[in-house]
Amino acid sequence: MIVEISAVPIGVGESLSSFVARVIEVLKEEGVNYSLGPMGTSFEVENFGRLAEILEKVDRALFEAGSPRNYYVIKIDNRAKGGRMADKVKAVEEKLK
Question: HSE-up of 5 (CA within 13 Å, CB side)?
Fold first, then answer.
């Protein structure tokens, strides 16, 4: 399953990079394959249960970092045959040749 998350702490000012860095730290601690993007971070998980565990840890980490309110935009791509982020990128790059 591929997930993209945009975590937006509300009430902390305009600069959010330190909060985004905290999200990345959680993903690293959890050992998931991730890709940081300018508008969100994509990562791979095995199932919805694992996703819930990670989201709970991200939410807790943002509160601990000083966010009074967290807003999320989450996209999920879950295919019966599976799928990896690198495979999706590779498929597009091959068509661009």
Answer: 25
